[in-house]
Amino acid sequence: MNIILLGPPGAGKGTQAHHLVASRNMIQLSTGDMLREAKDSGSEMGKVVADVMARGDLVTDEIVIGLIREKLQGEKQGGFIFDGFPRTLAQADALGDLLAEQGESLDAVIELRVDDEALVQRITARSTCGGCGEVYNDITKPWPADGKCAKCGSTDVKRRADDNEDSLRNRLMEYYKKTSPLLGYYYAKGKLSSVNGLAEIDAVQAAISSELDK
Question: What is the rounded average pLDDT for all residues in the chain?
Fold first, then answer.
C-alpha cells in the first residue's frame, strides 16, 4: 500500500507516519530525510544533492523524483508513505508517472484537517526531545517535571526556530497557495480521505487506520 499524508505544517504528518511505520511495516519517504541521507551517501545522486545544497540552491523536482525512484526500486516492505511530497500539482503528476513507471499505484491520500488558530496555538507550544525525537507540548503533553524525557531519559529539550507565530503563519500561507490544490486533484481521482488532525494522537491513528482498511 502506498499513501500520501497531506496537511499544513504542524498537522502531525510525521507523528502519524512513524505510527504507520511501526504498525504496518511501511517505509516513510520524507523529502528532508532523503536529501540528508543522499548528501551523506557519496552516491552519484548524493554528490548532485550535496552540490546543490552547498550552493544554497533549491533542490529541483527532478532530483527529488530521482531519490524516490531509488527508494521504490529497493525494499518495499509494507509500502511507502510520502511525507512532504508532492507539494504542487506538477510534483503530483510527476509522482503519478513515476509510480506507473515502477509498476506501483497510489492507494490513498489522507488529509489531516486542522483549524488554523488551534494549530498555531499547538505548534508554538511544541518541543521535542533532542535524544529520541519524542514530541511534547506545553499545553497537552508538557515536558516531565523531573526534566527528563519520559521515553529515553534525555534532558535535551529542543524547540524549532520557526515554531513561532509569525513564521508559522507564513508557512501556512505557502501551504495554502501551493499545496492545497492537491486536495481537489486527489479528490477528483477518488483517492482523498480527511481525518481530524487536531484530535488526540491515538484517535487520529485510529481514523487513519479505518480509512486505510476500507
Answer: 91
